[in-house]
Amino acid sequence: MIEINNITKSYKETMALSGINLHVNEGELFGLIGPDGAGKSTLIRILMTLLLPDSGEAKLDNLDVVENYKKIRKMVGYMPGRFSLYQDLSVEENLNFFATVFGTTVQENYDLIRDIFYQIEPFKSRRAGKLSGGMKQKLALSCALIHKPKILVLDEPTTGVDAVSRKEFWEMLKNLQQKGITILVSTPYMDEADLCDRVALIQNGQILDVDSPKQITEKFPRKIIQVGARNMYQLINDLRAYDKAEAVYAFGQYAHFTGLNDEVETNELDNYLQNLGHEKILVEEIPAGIEDVFMNLMEQ
Amino acid sequence: MKQLRSFIKKEFFHIFRDARTMLILFGIPVVQLLVFGTVIKSEIKDVHIAIYDQSKDETTQEITNKLLSSGYFLLDENLDNLDDIDAIFRKGKVREVIVFENNFGQTLGKEGIAKMQLIADASDPNIAKLAISYTTAIVNDYIRKLYPEMQLPMQITPEVRMYFNEEMKSAYMFVPGVMALILMLISAMMTSISITREKELGTMEILLVSPLRPVQIIVGKVLPYLLLSIANAFIIVLIGHFVFGVPVSGSFILLMLETILFIMMALCLGILISTAAKNQMAAMFISMIGLMLPTILLSGFIFPIENMPVVLQYFSHIMPARYFITIVRTIMLKGTGIFFIWKETAVLIGMTLFFIAVSVKKFKIRLE
Fold this sequence. Notes:
Helices cover 34% and strands 28% of the residues of chain A. By secondary structure, chain A is of the alpha/beta class.
């Protein structure tokens, strides 16, 4: 459904995208995972015909993003990074406006947005600027869907939204996927990768890996040791000081430790930390997550 | 068509829901008109004078009375010493001193010529000039009435008539100017700001991705402001007429048509600005500094174009307001028709078409 061949794009000196190749299947929920500044938005804007690539080509439903930009604009739903709504228009007015602009009516495609819109319907006369982040996001999604797009593209839809709304949002995306819409979504949150059918890890304008989240973590060869202790700060410093440490990252309330050549065993690390006087030590080997993979790929 | 209507409706929501926009649209024109109306003056009122009357006869007395009853002058002091003149000017309040020579009336009767001296404080040259010419006019008028048959050989008395503005009312001058200024500012500034706001908020991204055509976006942006600016022009003409007594001697319909043309021109200019400006701030500065100041200074609104340095005179040719002010003055004050202003009208039409062409061409269908 989405074909990207060797796309490059640079802004003045900085290379935003260098030789991106990507393939998204029809009906897929595809995740573009990467930190801020990785080039996610640039890639999405090229697909949305808003930017011209320096070289390479991209096709949506066999339509070229440069030549057939008008046709593409009619069949895609786009939700930009910032919730691009009119803050001074009410929920209802926003929705009606976007429906008319895309040559349709709210009634006509209400089925598609019902599940999303019913949650904000009680506030339909409220100005969009006065909605909470989660509600804005739902309204923006409703607006992007109102013309029944074949492909839905969302640029960091969950940034700045609370955990509950994020979870709800992903459920909505899953439902939309059931209705046959191909979805491309970008996010800086690694934990959201598991919710996609396939993901592309992107960093510094390059794709590091493309696969299903499960495959990506399963094929990861390294041994990850999760370590916890009362004094996190001291713990991380001590782990980094350990002579057989290769990488140590803070992951929420734990630290993830990778030993040189994976030779470090859990009890070895446990002893080391006990000798240093740490309390409430917890050391266990865990399967790698997307973030571990990402950190590792970034190191290389 | 439906898309366009919905777009225009949205635009009106933006305007009516934003207190600041409403204030700029309707508050500023009225305030500006009233402020300019009371501040810019080329007429004098209650100028303080002193008189040094060495003759003190019937004629000088009558001239003095006539001066003081005109409403232009207030007598501060009667001097009886030449040295006092300098002193009284230094005090600063008195702007003009009138000196009558000895035996003024008698000499005038006998020889038909008498001397009086007008001394003015030229630290404010405008007032000095005005005071002198007002005094001269009043004295001449008196003499003429006194000796209607007096005809000395070789004596030339220029009779000045201020056509179209007999009383030299400054309101006649500034109403067309303020009209041009306000319409220019509001039309150009508001459209450029409203387009750049969409860029800033990111809604432009969605509008671009939507099937809306550039022309629809531009027309949708322009039309609401066109209607509001026409309402504004109406208000200005009404205030000019009822508060400052500026007549509309010519065709009101022609005046409105020319005004709409000028507004169109300014709106297109606003769109052009928005294609260049990255954010609302930039758009506002370009409109303010790039449009407002030249409009005030170079359009002939305040300073006559003929008195400018030649370079600036050439520069004034590209000021759209220059042509509009000429048009408005011609219609409102002279009451003549399109035959006398077709050139200016043609220039404005040309400018409008140029700006439309450039903005449609420069309007980006993409983000860069």
